[in-house]
Amino acid sequence: MKKHIPNLLTCLNLFSGCIAVLMALDGNIKAVTICVLASGVFDFFDGMVARLLHVKSPIGKELDSLADMVSFGFLPGVIMFTLLQKVFPGGSLFPYIGFIVTVFSALRLAKFNLDERQTADFIGLNTPMNTFYVLSLPYIADKYPELIINPIFLICSALLTSYLLISEIRLFSMKFSSMDWATNKYRFIFLFLTLVLFAIGQFMALPVILLLYFILSALHFNKKTI
To answer: What transmembrane ranges does the database entry give (predicted)?
Structure first.
């Protein structure tokens, strides 16, 4: 029975992602947020539970990628699509540019499954982090609509994040092999600053958190190469 527990968590990730897509199309960003957070929790614990129970399997790995494709691949494309619809109303084709994020998320997930360099850390932006960045845009748009509901910003954002998904930029994961400060210094700093920034700005702070992630990852890997 225990071998099915990680796959159940993965399926819950997928289920939450499906609901999030429907909520995004309906414009209910608060419901989207709840579902994305749920997907993130299920995505984090399915692998952990599989390792703890020693029930890792090939089907679990494939199912995880398929679930992530919906929750962290299709969903951010839908959010970008709905934002671009506000800029290009009336049946324009430009909003479909948002689904470039979905296409490159698929490429990212396929690359991750085959790339043996990414067993401990990431090469390229991981799809959950990208999804949380995209999720922050509607929140920022509520306060600064002239900044976000802007065709140049939205198109450039879709193109830039798509590039980052398949880039060769090294980023640390939040998998702790130990609690040693010297090894995990930048991970601990990132966690602490993320909590502080989120407490101050909530979802509006996510772009700053993403930038911080890139900076601290660069410092982390630069230290390892010295």
So the answer is: 7-25, 93-110, 122-141, 147-167, 188-216
Spell out the residues 6+ positions from residue 66 whose beta carbon is closer than 8 angstroms to its own: 14
- Reading the block at residue 195, the tokens are 């909590």
**pTM, 2 dp:** 0.89
Task: Give the residue ranges of DSSP H helices in the chain.
Answer: 5-25, 29-53, 58-69, 75-87, 100-114, 127-143, 145-148, 151-165, 181-201, 206-225
Cα 78 from Cα 20, distance rounded (Å): 10
Eight-class DSSP state of 63: H
pLDDT value of residue 226? 46
At residue 119, φ and ψ (nearest 5 deg) are -75, -30
Whether 35 and 20 have beta carbons less than 8 Å apart is answered as yes
